[in-house]
Design a protein that fits this description.
Elements: E1 2-4, E2 27-33, E3 41-45, E4 50-57, E5 59-64, E6 67-72, E7 76-79, E8 85-89, E9 97-103, H1 106-109, H2 115-125, E10 131-134, H3 139-151, H4 161-179, H5 192-208, H6 215-221, H7 226-237, H8 241-259, H9 264-270, H10 276-287, H11 291-299
């Protein structure tokens, strides 16, 4: 199981990097130790892989364009393929640990457009479901959570590991289909168009955040009017384009301060946040400390 203590995104988009994700067996088991994340959230992102997760300890809030759910220890769920989402957690005195199965649907679907793909996998992937929530208080859901947890006990040293894992994931998938058939409508998700538009604009921000970006520029990247740009941001992310741009620039500043040696002034300009006074003010509001204090904290090997 891979231990995750931070998140990386592809430079050309907001899609999450999935290291060790092999094309011939597209699956990763991860133990996400959230307390080691520099910020108490994972930013908006997406991935083609399905995310099947279990909360081992702590509390985690998931946001998608159309839903907000808080998951307590012992609960879990599924994030559908290509769904835009983010997570937030509280830094308690205890640990915040999440276990995740990430896998391409093809792992259990078999040949594209084959019988299993058409009958069992595509209906969920193309449904309106962004997220499935599983609570241990409900017996049927508790059974699925037990299977999710048990699947993490399989190791590559087990004889037939790949077959055993695929069997476990397929059994979980079938139970999820049985759990809420009324939600599995064949119509595409109502937010598909807006989601694709917001992905284009997030990609533009990711590529040009160090430059001066106007709302007109951002709207043009997705072939939208300014008014539509504001609407899509509010619909999908529940914030304005300017608020998101500032937040993303500050995330990049945090990364540069924690990982690099550039002068604080240079970091501010490199992230598009301008003068030292403006950068310092925004940064303190965002993190509760100065850029220099932040660098000292995260470059100290004894910080955790």
């Amino acid at each position: 199981m891979k231990i995750i203590r931070g998140m990386e995104l592809h430079n050309e988009s907001r899609e999450e990097k999935l290291p060790d994700f092999a094309p011939d067996f597209p699956y990763i088991a991860s133990r996400v130790e959230l307390d080691y994340f520099r910020e108490s959230s994972a930013p908006w992102h997406w991935h083609r892989a399905v995310e099947l997760f279990y909360i081992e300890s702590g509390e985690l809030k998931y946001r998608t364009p159309n839903a907000v759910e808080v998951f307590q220890a012992g609960s879990g769920g599924l994030i559908n393929s290509n769904v835009l989402h983010m997570t937030e957690f509280q830094r308690y005195g205890g640990r915040n640990i999440q276990l995740i199965h990430l896998f391409e649907p093809s792992l259990i679907a078999g040949p594209h457009d084959g019988l299993i793909d058409r009958k069992y996998v595509v209906p969920l992937l193309t449904s309106r479901l962004e997220m499935i929530v599983l609570h241990p208080e409900e017996p049927e859901q508790a059974d699925i959570l037990r299977l999710i947890r048990q699947a993490f006990e399989l190791t590559e040293e087990d004889f037939g590991y790949e077959l055993l894992l695929r069997e476990a994931l397929a059994r979980i998938w079938l139970k999820l289909l049985h759990l809420s058939p009324s939600a599995l409508q064949k119509q595409p998700r109502s937010s598909d168009r807006s989601t694709e538009q917001i992905k284009r604009m997030l990609t533009y921000i990711h590529e040009h955040f160090s430059e001066k970006i106007s709302v007109i520029d951002l709207a043009a990247s997705a072939f939208l009017s300014e008014r539509e740009c504001y609407r899509v941001f509010q619909t999908c992310l529940h914030m304005t384009p300017v608020e998101y741009l500032r937040s993303f620039r500050l995330q990049q500043a945090c990364r540069m301060l924690a990982e690099g040696k550039e002068p604080v002034t240079a970091v501010g300009y490199a992230c598009g946040l301008g003068s030292p006074s403006y950068f310092g003010k925004c940064f303190r509001t965002h993190t509760g400390c100065t850029p220099l204090e932040y660098r000292r904290k995260w470059q100290d090997p004894d910080k955790m």
